[in-house]
Design goal:
Radius of gyration: 23 Å
Helix content: 40-55%
CATH topology of the largest domain: TIM Barrel
CATH superfamily of the largest domain: Glycoside hydrolase/deacetylase
Oligomer: single chain
CATH class of the largest domain: Alpha Beta
Length: 250
């Protein structure tokens, strides 16, 4: 009887181990299916004094006209990443941005957490936004800025399968925080602090901004100082066409 019980326990333990290993293999297999082959763009590897300003938009429409005026005065073109729901609700502003010559790209539809969605759900977010922007501007989006800067496999794979290049950033203004004054926002671009023990290289950098009041106030200072330092500001599409393109700074 004792031997029989011991045998049953061994069989039960063996079964649990098999189930555990099987689950682990399945998990790795599923994750492998979603593993992208192209890294997100965070910075371009170049010695040229060039940078790209990007503005992610899901709110803040009241500051868009002022931002466009400052950019026009500085003769600067930037890249706007729009959510589909914002573009749908503000088609006139989308047209104004496009007519001003700025690049308009994809920020997903409803600003969800991409890492919490499947590949299919992420693709639906991207495609829905693409269709809305295409209907307003006549141009398809081809760059994708994932909400919250999330870069898990499902979001990256979704973008890659749709032919998109996922774009993140080198310098984050963190302008959405209440304590981010115009001076602090400008400093994060002009004199960035160390990241991972290194001061980020501004050459080839991608800057993340949002349509906020203090961002609007900081923008003239940022443009003036960068021009004085000899930097040329490009759209994302212009930036990645430079020689010596790199994959990522991370």
């Amino acid at each position: 009887m004792f031997i029989r019980r011991r045998t049953l326990r061994l069989w039960a333990l063996t079964g649990l181990i098999i189930l555990f290993l099987g689950g682990l293999l399945i998990t790795r297999w599923v994750m492998g299916l979603a593993k992208p082959t192209v890294n997100p763009i965070e910075q371009i590897n170049t010695a040229q004094k060039v940078m790209a300003l990007t503005i992610n938009v899901d709110w803040g429409e009241e500051y868009i006209p002022g931002i466009l005026q400052v950019l026009a005065k500085g003769k600067v073109k930037v890249t706007f990443f729009l959510t589909g729901r914002w573009a749908k609700n503000h088609p006139d502003l989308v047209r104004i941005i496009a007519e001003a010559g700025h690049q308009i790209e994809n920020h997903g539809y409803s600003h969800p957490h991409p890492d919490r969605l499947s590949v299919k759900a992420n693709q639906e977010e991207i495609k829905k936004t693409e269709e809305i922007i295409l209907g307003i501007t006549g141009n398809r989006t081809r760059y994708y800025a994932p909400p919250y800067g999330e870069k898990g496999n499902t979001g990256l794979k979704a973008a890659e399968e749709l032919g998109y290049l996922t774009t993140l950033w080198t310098l984050d203004t963190v302008d959405w925080r209440p304590e981010s004054t115009p001076e602090i926002i400008a400093k994060r671009v002009l004199n960035p602090e160390k990241r991972f023990g290194l001061i980020p290289n501004k050459s080839g950098a991608i800057v993340l901004m949002h349509p906020k009041e203090n961002t609007l106030k900081a923008l003239p200072l940022i443009l003036a100082q960068l021009a004085q330092e000899g930097y040329s500001l490009k759209t994302i599409n212009e930036l990645i066409t430079l020689d010596n393109i790199g994959n990522t700074t991370s």
